[in-house]
Amino acid sequence: MILKELVDLLPLISVNDVSLEREVQGVYIGDLLSFVMANGQENELWLTVQRHLNVVAVAELTGFSAIVFLQDIEPEAETISKANELSIPLLKTSLTAYELTKTLVKVGL
Question: Sign of the C-alpha dihedral, residues 79, 84, 87, 91?
Fold first, then answer.
């Protein structure tokens, strides 16, 4: 599924202005960055409550399709700036990880 399709279907808000034409093949939920780096897979959505600059480095290293900030978490300004520089989509939602995951399953992800 293409990221743009998910944004159109789900309660997701784009935080930065980068292309949403990335393939999404799964979801990874986690907040411990070393664990995310070791276990996340390329083309997954990363669901997290971490908001600092290091999440962008982890997303780039792992090859995530996008970072989704849960529960109305707002990423820090430098996080947005670095994500723009690297063309990494940042999304946010008011949903919890559990609620968003249920919705992702319903749309076939």
Answer: positive
Residue 51 φ/ψ region, left for φ over 0, alpha for ψ in the -120 to 50 degree band, beta for the rest: alpha
- What's the whole-model pTM score? 0.96
Q: 47 forms bridges with which residues in the sheet?
A: 29, 68
> What pLDDT digit, counting tens, does each position of 58-75 carry?
999 999 999 999 999 999
What's the rounded Cα separation, in Å, for the pair 52 and 1? Answer: 27
C-alpha–C-alpha distance, residues 11 and 95, integer Å: 8
Mention every residue, 6+ apart, whose C-beta is less than 8 A from residue 77: none
Cα–Cα distance measured from residue 46 to residue 55, given in angstroms and rounded to the nearest whole number: 10
